[in-house]
Amino acid sequence: MSRTPLPDLAASGASAGPSADLGPALAALVAGAVAMGLSPILVRAVSPEVGPFASAFWRVALALPVLYGWMRLEEARAPHLRRGVTPSSLLAGLAFSGDLLFWHLAVLGTTVANATFFATTAPVFVVMFAWIGLRRRPAGRTLLGLLVCLLGGATLVGQSIQVDPARLAGDRDGVITALFFALYFLTVERARARGLGAARVTFVASCVTALVLLVAVAVLETRPVLPQSWSAAAGLLALALVSHAGGQGLLAVALGRLPAGFSSLVIFLEAVAAAILAWILLGEAIGPLQVLGGGLILAGIAVARPRRSAPAIKL
Fold first, then answer.
1. pLDDT tens digit string along 284-308?
2. What does the pLDDT read at residue 306?
3. Best CA proximity match to 107, nearest among 167, 58, 46, 185
4. Which GO CC terms are listed, alphabetically (predicted)?
5. Could you tell me which residues come within 8 angstroms of residue 162 by beta carbon, excluding any fewer than 6 positions away?
6. How would residue 113 be classed by pLDDT, with cut points 50, 70 and 90?
7. What is the spatial distance between Cα 303 and Cα 148, in angstroms, rounded to a whole number?
8. How far apart are CA 9 and CA 260, in angstroms?
9. For residue 196, which phi and psi values (nearest 5 degrees)?
10. Reported pTM
């Protein structure tokens, strides 16, 4: 990956400007978080019939026709967008493959709470990689916001976290999940900065991810690959269209205007959205600690938010 610095408002400490400049990107980020927050519920719904690696594959593969159509439409309406494939878009696909694979391995190897907690450390690695690898020093408010979000994330799932030497491999896979997710943010940001539209970046990355996951299914999957009921098939389709095409697509839109360091905080919003959706759809109780954790996450995002618009790709 090139070491040429990219504009990063959260890192530069730029002063405030018209909030309307970033409004659509912020809205895309929040909407993407809600869409991705639905994925644990949908995975749980299809899990009795479809194995974890197979569900990850269908999540991406079934979204490809929609992403292709979006790409053609976006590029027809915006001829200035760059065509073709870039190294960053290919690397984004490999990074997302690693994210999904190690996430499922973490869930299988440790508790869901542990896997979730370690996965939410992804923004730490985004800031670290951008600082060390891209020479983009984070602003103080970025670090403060990240610290508050981490505290909120720990509070959100903290009462369920367990320390068990027998689950260390699963905990390790949770950390690796965070590493890959951090690389995904940075590579998507890089691809968008090189002139690719959000749809093309998401489509190319998804093609790579689908190929990698197809191999993983052939090698690792021990449970059924195809759904046995219409309800499970509908769940996989919703996972593909809402959580992947919608969630990852909107994230790519946001990364055309917002820095990766700030956008990576979407993983905390995703956890909050998942808790709220589980409460609404599944009746899972939300206690005082979950409310406190969610409040801390929102406060941390407010602290870290960019203060003005950056030179960026047209959306």
1. 777 788 788 888 888 888 888 776 5
2. 73
3. 167
4. membrane
5. 111, 113, 114
6. low
7. 9
8. 10
9. -80, 145
10. 0.83
